[in-house]
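Take a minute with the sequence and fold tokens given here and flag any structure token that looks odd. Thanks in advance.
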Amino acid sequence: MTSPPTSQPAQRPGVPTASVQAGSGELTVSVVPGSTGGEATSYEVAMDGTVVGVLAEAGTVTVPVDDCDPHSVQVVAVGPGGRSDAVSASGRGCVAPGPVMHPKAISAQVPDPSMLHFDVSWEPPLDSGGGEIEYEITFSYVLALPDGDAPGTDVFTTDELSWPVPFSHHISTWQLTVAAVGPAGKGPPVEVPLEQE
């Protein structure tokens, strides 16, 4: 008399692959199934040890983040055979800021008749990138001096929306740019046009 076949216990799901894409105030977690192991019927996504999402199948999930600190993301595959080992990835919920808006410069006389200054102003970028930002003003110029041209660059940093930039009458050519700077890097510099009062 033959014995009935015995069913094999289900295998633990294979360890998935996870990657994290930084966003402005969010992290996008991408999950790819493991190449070995048993069936996975869902994927648990945890951030810093707390489950923040469950995927019915491999794919992506977006997790809100309210700071620019590094965060650790863990993904576990779950199936009839149990739970896989966790795989980890890390990322920050911020990116470099967008471009500043509506920059302009207006020339103004200062007490020293040999000098002027530009009143430079701008508006914040539409996308701050998800963190605190400050602004970098870069003034590149060429001084026309008796013994030859002398190029120079001055860089100013502020958390305000305006800045006075000194300007000499000896400057022959110049360029002004403003860029927003956040924890994840610097946004694109925007050239500042000179407006007449």
